[in-house]
UniProtKB/TrEMBL annotation:
Native source species: Paenibacillus hemerocallicola
Gene3D superfamilies linked to this entry: 3.30.70.360, Zn peptidases (3.40.630.10)
Pfam hit, one: M20_dimer
Annotated protein name in UniProt: Peptidase M20 domain-containing protein 2
Peptidase M20 dimerisation domain location: 173-251
GO biological process annotation, one example: folic acid catabolic process
GO cellular component: cytoplasm
Superkingdom in the source lineage: Bacteria
InterPro entries to which the protein is assigned, alphabetical: Amidohydrolase (IPR017439), Bact_exopeptidase_dim_dom (IPR036264), Peptidase_M20/M20A_hydrolases (IPR052030), Peptidase_M20_dimer (IPR011650), Xaa-Arg_dipeptidase (IPR017144)
Gene Ontology terms, MF aspect: dipeptidase activity; para-aminobenzoyl-glutamate hydrolase activity
Family, similarity comment: Belongs to the peptidase M20A family.
Length: 387
């Protein structure tokens, strides 16, 4: 049956590559992925999936379903298709979504014989306000047995970990005045932002090595001879787990409050993006995916242990159902994600072939879970232990 699902992916390979290239050539920012959503949902409908759009009021989110009519596990393939500002698809999301599409097509070709159901989740805006967060909170993954996705990269890596993250915005409100004629009448909001940065630089010395704080000034005044009455800054606060991230956020907020107190400004604090939880990789599910990569011809010594590559909204999904996020090699050159070089190489035939390989590994892993009750039990036991 694996040969059958591989053949189904091969038969659709030209279509899958066309869709990936089209999305790559038409990059769209988060929650604006109209063209990508239309391409993916159109092909899913053509393949016999029932498609729901406008999920949770998100116009470019979708859930596509195919049910065998027989009892069995619910398998989810997750698709991301948003691009980066100024860089396009430098994170390879045009490949990620098409991997999920290809895996669903392959698994569907054998599903009527083995039972279960397939769901393809279209999840916009992973780079900013990741849709997996409200989807998770709404319980849309609670009945899913496994959630699968893979990320393009310059080498193979097992599913590892990610950093929990909060996105904080601090806005300071002061009082403008002429900086030369009557500076004594002003309350300098930019001074508050600068004090905040200095406080955070000092705070970093007392943080665990896995914690990260990085930010930018988003407003700091208009003219050098006018004391700024408004200034703002945005930060990402990350660490290896949610409890320590929450603790660090509290410390960061106290630094912000201290800057307001020192300058006499008023402070407004907000979250400008969703909070991401750390990824909890399901061990047995990850081992099954790795075994399928090896079965498809990838030498075991070429598959590295999982690394932390930042933050992702799949972490929130992994609290709801067993999940993995491995990295698959799609380029031969060593270029990191979020660079123009990776973007360009991710549009080559080599990258498209890597995408097809990954789709096969994802589909084969889902097949193993559906057909092997012991594997599914081990996956669920591991999930309960980590949850």
């Amino acid at each position: 049956m694996k040969k059958q699902l591989f053949n189904a992916i091969n038969e659709n390979a030209d279509t899958l590559k066309r869709i990936a290239l089209y999305i790559g050539e038409h990059p769209e920012l988060g929650n604006e992925e109209v063209l990508a959503c239309a391409e993916l949902t159109g092909e899913l409908k053509r393949q016999g999936f029932r498609v729901e759009t406008d999920i949770l009021g998100l116009p470019t989110a979708f859930i596509a379903t195919y049910e065998s009519g027989k009892p069995g596990p619910i398998v989810a393939f997750l698709c991301e298709y948003d691009a980066l500002p100024g860089l396009g698809h430098a994170c390879g999301h045009h490949l990620i979504c098409t991997m999920g599409l290809g895996a669903a097509i392959g698994l569907k070709s054998v599903l009527d014989g083995i039972g279960g159901a397939i769901r393809v989740y279209g999840t916009p805006a992973e780079e900013t306000k990741g849709a997996k967060v409200p989807m998770s909170e709404a319980g849309l993954f609670d009945d899913v047995d496994i959630a699968l996705m893979a990320h393009p990269f310059h080498r193979f890596e097992k599913s590892g970990s990610s950093l929990a993250m909060d996105a904080l915005q601090f806005e300071y409100f002061g009082k403008s005045a002429h900086a030369a004629a009557n500076p004594q009448d002003g309350v300098n909001a930019l001074d508050a932002v600068l004090m905040l940065f200095n406080s955070l630089n000092a705070l970093r010395q007392q943080l665990a090595s896995h914690a990260r704080i990085h930010g930018v000034i988003t407003a700091g005044g208009e003219a050098p001879n006018i004391i700024p009455e408004y200034a703002s800054a945005k930060f990402y606060v990350r660490s290896a787990n949610r409890p320590y991230t929450d603790e660090t956020v509290r410390k960061v907020i106290r630094c912000a409050e201290g800057a307001a107190l020192q300058t006499g400004c008023t402070l407004a604090t907000s979250n400008y993006e969703y909070s991401y939880d750390e990824l909890s990789t399901n061990g047995p599910l990850s081992e099954a995916f790795t075994a399928n990569l090896v079965g498809l011809g990838v030498a075991a010594e070429r598959i590295y242990d999982g690394q932390d590559h930042g933050s992702l909204d799949l972490g929130n999904v992994s609290r709801r159902c067993p999940s993995i996020h491995p990295f698959v090699q799609v380029i031969d050159e060593t270029h990191m994600l979020h660079t123009p070089e990776f973007r360009d190489f991710a549009m080559t035939e080599r990258a498209l072939d890597g995408m097809i390989l990954s789709a096969k590994a994802l589909a084969a892993t889902a097949y193993d879970v559906i057909s092997d009750t012991v594997l599914l039990q081990n996956i669920k036991s591991a999930f309960r232990a980590t949850k």
